[in-house]
Batch of 2 targets.
Target 1
Amino acid sequence: MTSPDNHGSPPTIVLVHGAWADASSWSRVGSTLQDEGYKVRAIANPLRSLSGDAASVRAFLDSLTGPIVLVGHSYGGAVITNAATGNPNIQALVYVDAFAPDAGENATALAGPDSALSVDPTTVFDLVPPTFPPTAASDLYLKESTVFTSFANGLSDDEKAVVFATQRSATVGALGEPSGTPAWRTIPSWYVLGTRDKIIPPSVQRSMAERAGSTIVEFDAGHVGLMADPKTVTQVIEQAVRATVG
């Protein structure tokens, strides 16, 4: 789907992080891509509302010229699904342990009953403000136990501690907001599926990836496979570049 105006132009690879993370979660993938000569931008995802987050990412994408390969991790997958719709410069989508919702779906429901987060929220989240029930504007932070046992499995204890300490909160509303028209209907996609993911179970990932018609690559990683196995993630991104941009 490379447009004539983009043919032969070097792509920009845009990396969008998920909830309870920031752009530094892409540092290992991004640095490898840069070493190989790619233009890389790992940008901020506000984590305030799905529509607002997608609008923020869309505005950044609109500032770029030339072909774009857009990559999303976790909730970032829902964001790129909405942000990419209608942008002719986006040649490929890459989902990494990510949500790929259809219209009307939301991340919380898609995670399904087998997700480690689909339990009493007071056992896995810290609420800010600490009042229950939460509102759409309530911030969710992962409890330390959730990071260590479910969210960052596959990392060392020292790395897990950093993930816990530096996490950015997501609002309840962002995770529960229905998605719009999905970009994967018109843009080719790749899906990096972590077989040890406890946040978005592998069966859920596969169902979304197959529905989107994605090229699926499995790897033996948990939810933060972009940090635990950046080599595989980088290889799939490069595969998407070669297939759509050249």
Target 2
Amino acid sequence: MTSAQTTASRARPEGGVPKHVAIIMDGNNRWAKAHGLSSVRGHRAGVEAVRAVIRRAGERGVETLTLFAFSSENWRRPEAEVSALMELFLLALKREVRKLHEHGIRLSIIGERSGFSRSIQKHIEQAEALTAENRGLHLVIAANYGGRWDIARAARRLAGRVATGELAVETIDEAAVEGELCLGEVPPVDLCIRTSGEQRISNFLLWQMAYAEFHFTTTLWPDFDGAAFDAALDDFRSRKRRFGKTDEQVEDDDA
């Protein structure tokens, strides 16, 4: 089986429900401004939307939900906002993880952790350890994450293995690269949702979204709820995923 065939077979969802949904949660600041509130209040409102979407994803049978919480470029935002975001992140790790564990949800955090305080790093480690054996929804939070960073990191790891003689250069293929990525063992993204009307991927899961379907909505993230998530899944179900094949070939495969 070729790499492309492997990707297609891994990515094809059962029953029209995407196995892996990734969301770029955008619009907290605009929502806050529209309501005459501070950016911090907007981010807090966004946490409520996260809870609603996690709940609905589990109900709909999604296997993996990846949320883009904080990009490697977000450090450029005003210092006060970044500080508030870090406080919210730490608070969520302290308060929400136990609830996730009670519902059988496995939590993973991807991204460059060295940029966070030691306290946040400690709570990330504890959260992942607590939920590691859970077999429900796999919730992935991308924090201080960038797709280019992810691919470059994989390249460094492969280069290190070549340097030690563990790996031969000629054996490096797509599967080898994928195995060194943050989500190497997770099925590729089937559906990427972006809120707030923006239509770009902003350096998010560049490799993993090679064959993803995209759903763009003008809804600001704090207003994105279970019904909006259902609408995105309905949109996904209407798509015909070809993975490089013709319509006729896809129809034959589905027959």
